[in-house]
Amino acid sequence: MLKKLPKDFIMGGATAAYQCEGSTDVDGKGQVAWDQFLVEKGRYSANPASDFYNQYAVDIALCKKFKIDSIRMSISWSRIFPNGYGEINHKGVEYYHKVFAECKKQGVIPFVTLHHFDTPKSLFDDGDFLNRKNIDYFVDYAKFCFEEFTEVYYWSTFNEIYPVASNQYLLGSFPPEVQFDIAKTVTCLHNMMYAHARAVNVFKEGNYAGEIGVVHSLETKYPASESLKDRHAAALDDALSIKFLLDATYFGYYSPETMELVNEILAANSQTVEIDEEDFIEMKKASNRNDFLGINNYGSHWVKAYDGESKLHYNTTGEKGTQVYQIKGIGERIVREDLPKTDWDWIIYPKGLYDLLIRIKNEYPNYNKIFITENGLGYKDEFEEGIIMDDARIDYVRQHFNSIADACEEGVNVAGYFIWSLMDVFSWVNGYTKRYGLFYIDFETQKRYPKESAYWYKFVSETKTII
Length: 467
Ligand code: BGP
Known about the structure:
- The chain contains 15 helices and 15 strands.
- The chain has one domain (about 10-220, about 285-295, about 350-460): Glycosidases (TIM Barrel, Alpha-Beta Barrel), CATH 3.20.20.
- The strands form three sheets. An eight-stranded parallel beta barrel has the order 1-2-3-4-5-7-12-13, surrounded by five helices. A five-stranded mixed beta sheet has the order 6-8-11-10-9, covered by helices on one side.
- By secondary structure, the protein is an alpha/beta fold.
- The longest helix is centred in the middle third of the chain and has 24 residues, at about 180-205.
- The protein has helices at about 15-20, 35-40, 50-65, 75-80, 90-105, 120-125, 130-150, 160-170, 180-205, 230-250, 255-270, 280-285, 350-365, 390-410, 450-465, and strands at about 10-15, 70-75, 110-115, 155-160, 210-215, 220-225, 290-295, 300-305, 310-315, 325, 330-335, 370-375, 415-420, 440, 445-450.
- The radius of gyration is 21 Å and the shape is globular.
- The termini are close together.
- The mean pLDDT is about 95.
- Helix 7 (about 130-150) packs parallel to helix 9 (about 180-205).
- The site of 6-O-phosphono-beta-D-galactopyranose has 15 residues, from loops.
């Protein structure tokens, strides 16, 4: 029997400002760290990306045509405040008003993130979220947006706090390319969770209309075997990448169990972190004020005990089988030969999403409601005379829809799903060959072509039946 998604389930498409807008140096926009970083690497550029800065009306019209109820997008902080604070760039403000007006015209709901990996460069260079002063600037920027963009109902504070911290300070795949610094990773996680809490409290105390939440990247960690050592390694990985964030979001503090595991990771790397107890006042206040949790989920991980030094190879080329992930004090994420993987070595395991949803319902019962804010398949799509048969993507999304439907049956409140991505966009460390969109973009001409998946998605949206 075909499964069904809930009747009012929102079907969306996700984007992020820096990955789709292009036009990174026009109309007074301030710089972000990526601008210089990508030039230095010389691999690809964020211009013109999907040229959403100019083509937004085309993309929003496509949403309407393909029954995509909502577009997840982010505001670029440095378009509004080129230096991160102080002087306002009115052209940036106007631009987002135009985008929201277009959404309204086409009946497409904007689902807006305030920060998606793009801290203004001046603040980034000054320590990004390791610098407590920047928390104040983020909260001021958030407040400005709540006041200004009354067209927006759904707000997310941050996109993926764990990948921000770990890509910047543990894996070094994002600027400033610091590796294996657990103390910086934990400090960044905590400071961003505190910034989130403060923004939520400003939103609720300001009585703005709408809903607010945070988008976390949550991917289930399973032990590589039933041995005690492997189970402990999985628990360590889980504590840092999942529990730390969900505890902060829904308890407003870190449980003793979480802290014990996180401190064990720090100790193995001869580091410590002090957290100011005062922060928990704001965090506790915010912990029952989240209207929703956004979950980005692409796969799952199997973790094995590992005693050696940290070693990494992040597959950014789509050359299958090249990934290495061994972190001192945590463990090794292994390759499961028996499970399907993408060309970028991401393990495809839809049951991981089901297990995650059930776990949240049980362990964080005040979660309120969940949106799957990202899920999708990075793929080397083949373009044949305007036709893109992306059956693998359809299959991937179908299996994840089935997991969501199963979780809903078990009483988890999942209110919507945003495929990553609405149209092809540029991928932070993989460039333009790793495509995710429902709409194919010829990056030379900027022409959009609906893929087979777009037609399938439309059918599911109309019928809520998972075919
Ligand atoms: C998430 C980010 C997105 C997007 C996606 C796919 O971590 O929120 O911005 O990039 O992952 O990742 P990638 O482009 O590395 O394949």
